[in-house]
Amino acid sequence: MNLQGHAALITGAGQGIGKACTEVFAERGASLILLDKNRKTLPHVAHEIHSRGCKVIAHIIDLTHTRSLERLIETLKKDVNIDILVNNAGFDKPGVTSKINKRHLNDVLGIHVGVPFFLIKLLLPDMRSHHWGRIINISSVYGISGAKGEVAYSTAKAAVIGLTKTIAREAGKDGVTVNAVVPGLIRTPPMIKMPDKYKEPIIAQTLLGRMGEPEEVAKVVAFLASDDASYITGTTVTVSVGHISLALCLYFYSSPIRILRRLTAFGRTSPIFSKNLKWA
Predict the structure, then answer these.
(1) Which end of the chain is more exposed for a tag (fewer CB within 10 A), N or C?
(2) Residue 174: exposed, middle, or buried by beta-carbon count in 10 A (0-12, 13-18, 19+)?
(3) What does each C-alpha distance from 175 to 5, 120, 124 come to in angstroms?
């Protein structure tokens, strides 16, 4: 699965699945544009990837700020043919229907649905003109099954699947494939920080008796971004061993909720390597 000659834009690249995607894509030879709001983790990830000889541009940005995002993408497109898009950035804001308000819902839908839609809108025309493009949207098993206490998040992740299937129909004949990856129980920062007494009973019920690793999701994403997946589009690929709902655990244990709220979504725009947005 050689990705040399391709440039991949990955959102939420500073940790978890997004970070794993940067590592796997770099191993396969892709040039990388990394976007995240986290000023602590993204620079470390970017420098690590750059030290391996990979071309990388890293930018700290509020992805929900449409004008800033549009300016950034238009600037990047002057020098880079971005032909792979991985929409990974997101955060969770748990709550039952009776407890959430319009702002709560809009915040969650904005990062999970609005940002991917807008990035697709900005990048799809060039992918079509080159008759080659790969768009991979990260959804969740909650987008398929739903989860008590996760009405906004589950709704948003279901919408990601709908967005995926619709754009795939629009772009397929132009050589652009669009797919969704649906992770299950993955060893991401919120799960790592959850106390064992809450975590172990859930893990014990999975078919393999363990959590999935971010790298296992990233390898599926990289496959879908490659020519090996040229006849796969409009699909959802589940990376799971049988879904165990975390809703009850998150409902009674508050610390993971605070952690989840800090996942990639917001931040000011700031380049890390180059004020001119050139390859480092």
Answers:
(1) C
(2) middle
(3) 17, 15, 11
Q: What's the domain range around 255?
A: 7-271
In 3D space, the residue among 195, 204, 47, 225 whose CA is nearest the CA of residue 135 turns out to be 225
- The CATH number of the domain holding residue 59 is 3.40.50.720
CB 112 within 8 A of CB 160: yes
**Short-list 96, 43, 90, CA closest to 188:** 90
pLDDT given at position 218:
98
* Domain-located, residue 280: no
> Tokens in use for 133?
């493009």
* Residue 251 annotated among the catalytic residues of the structure: no
CA–CA gap between residue 160 and residue 64 (Å, rounded)? 16
Domain total of the chain: 1
pLDDT digits (tens, 9 = 90+) for 253-271: 444 444 344 333 333 344 5
Residue 242 lies in a domain: yes
pLDDT value for 24? 98
Which of residues 10 and 109 earns the better pLDDT score?
10
Q: Write out pLDDT tens, residues 186-239.
A: 888 877 888 888 788 878 888 898 988 999 999 999 999 999 999 999 999 999
Residue 226, sorted as left (phi over 0), alpha (psi -120 to 50) or beta, turns out to be beta
- At position 204, the amino acid (one-letter code) is A
Q: Which of 219, 104, 118, 191 is nearest to 150 (CA)?
A: 104
* 253 and 164 Cβ atoms separated by less than 8 Å: no
Residue 279 lies in a domain: no
- The whole-number pLDDT of residue 262 equals 38
The Cα 180–Cα 166 span in angstroms is 11
